[in-house]
Design brief:
ten-stranded mixed β-sheet; 4 helices; 183 residues; single chain; alpha/beta
Length: 183
């Protein structure tokens, strides 16, 4: 018997200063796969907020490992934004860049150390076209703090300024940098 995913209801006041985005009531549901950690759920939520735009949607998740974690399609069905979170495979990211030439391909890693390990793997695999993707890591301490919030309804405020994230959740404040890759 297959376990059903758990649904989490997020209500976020999102402000992305650099992109002039102000969404005071962004609401969405996230399905957590039975084998998925809360840290990975939060990583998907942060990626959704970081790259937010109309029509950005969560992918099929861990059940479909070849599919993106998030994607955005234009009105013709063409993929315009392809997003992976967590432990990405450089060869698969290079394939996503090649197969989606009109899309912005992005990866959000769970720590700067994982981002560096990915870059090393990409160099060793000679997957040099991953440089066309936007590779960024969230602060590991920030992600760890947020993953402690595991209630089915989560309300928070998230502000992104430059390469820094500020979060207020249940009366607690957290912040941390976003680290961008340079190949």
């Amino acid at each position: 018997m297959t376990l059903a995913p758990t649904l989490y209801d997020f209500q976020i006041a999102l402000s992305h200063v650099d992109r002039a985005i102000d969404q005071p009531q962004l609401s969405f549901k996230v399905a957590r796969h039975p084998s998925e950690t809360m840290q990975r759920v939060w990583l998907r939520v942060l990626a959704y907020c970081w790259l937010w735009e109309e029509r950005l949607a969560f992918g099929k998740g861990l059940g479909e490992p070849e599919e993106p974690d998030l994607e955005c399609r234009d009105y013709t069905g063409l993929v315009t934004n392809w997003v992976r979170v967590g432990k990405a495979d450089p060869v698969k990211i290079q394939r996503a860049v090649d197969q989606n030439p009109h899309a912005k391909v992005s990866v959000l890693f769970e720590s700067p150390q994982r981002l560096e390990a990915f870059l090393t793997e990409a160099r060793e695999a000679k997957a040099l076209r991953v440089a066309k993707a936007e590779l960024t890591a969230i602060d590991a301490d920030l992600l760890r703090s947020l993953s402690g919030f595991d209630s089915r309804r989560i309300k928070l405020s998230l502000t992104l300024v430059g390469d820094h994230a500020y979060v207020e959740c249940e009366g607690q404040s957290f912040d941390g940098p976003l680290t961008r890759a340079s190949l």
